[in-house]
């Protein structure tokens, strides 16, 4: 039989995963996941937060894509960003790149997420589809907010 402490801990962990998905994302991952993300970063273009911010200020990020889940997006996203969750990116990006009339495979896109991990993998997926001008923001949305940069909540 489970102790009250064990049961409480289990319920607390489930609540964190359900109600605070960004926090769950920030947790440690198995080494194999970290290795996959690190290896993928060597295969794509990434920018840090300072470069993201300066390029954002110049209005030169292209299509800004927040690949977090809809609930995370609503809780606060970068102004002008669209929400296309990482798990759906291959299927839902097309209207934003002109499909079916005139698909622009060189459309400039900058992807971000909570920690830089999901956008890294999503950037690689888009690159694998043939997109040629996609960049991942290797930054934390939490650090963006702590720096006092604007987030839109809706």
CATH architecture term: 3-Layer(aba) Sandwich
Annotation, overall tally of beta strands:
5
In total, how many domains does the architecture comprise? 1
User: How far is the first residue's CA from the last residue's CA?
Assistant: 44 Å
The CATH class designation is: Alpha Beta
**Global mean pLDDT:** 87
CATH superfamily: Rhodanese-like domain
What pattern of helices and strands is seen along the backbone? Answer: HHHEHEHEHEHEH
**Strand order, biggest sheet?**
1-5-4-2-3
Radius of gyration: 17 Å
Q: What portion of the residues fall into strands of 2 or more residues?
A: 5-15%
| CATH topology description | Oxidized Rhodanese, domain 1
- What is the helix tally? 8
**How helical, in percent, are the residues?**
40-55%
- Work out the oligomeric state of the chains in this entry: single chain
- Secondary-structure-based class equals alpha/beta
């Amino acid at each position: 039989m489970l102790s009250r402490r064990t049961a409480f801990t289990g319920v607390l962990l489930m609540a964190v995963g359900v109600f605070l998905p960004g926090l769950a994302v920030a947790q440690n991952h198995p080494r194999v996941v970290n290795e996959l993300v690190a290896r993928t970063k060597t295969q794509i273009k990434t920018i840090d937060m300072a470069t993201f911010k300066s390029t954002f200020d110049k209005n030169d990020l292209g299509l800004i894509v927040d690949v977090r889940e809809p609930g995370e997006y609503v809780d606060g996203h970068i102004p002008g960003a669209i929400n296309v969750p990482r798990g759906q990116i291959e299927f839902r990006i097309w209207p934003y790149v002109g499909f079916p009339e005139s698909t622009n495979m060189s459309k400039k896109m900058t992807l971000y997420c909570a920690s830089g991990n999901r956008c890294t993998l999503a950037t690689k997926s888009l690159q694998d589809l043939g997109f040629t001008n996609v960049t991942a923001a290797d930054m934390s949305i939490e650090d963006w907010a702590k720096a006092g940069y604007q987030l839109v909540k809706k």
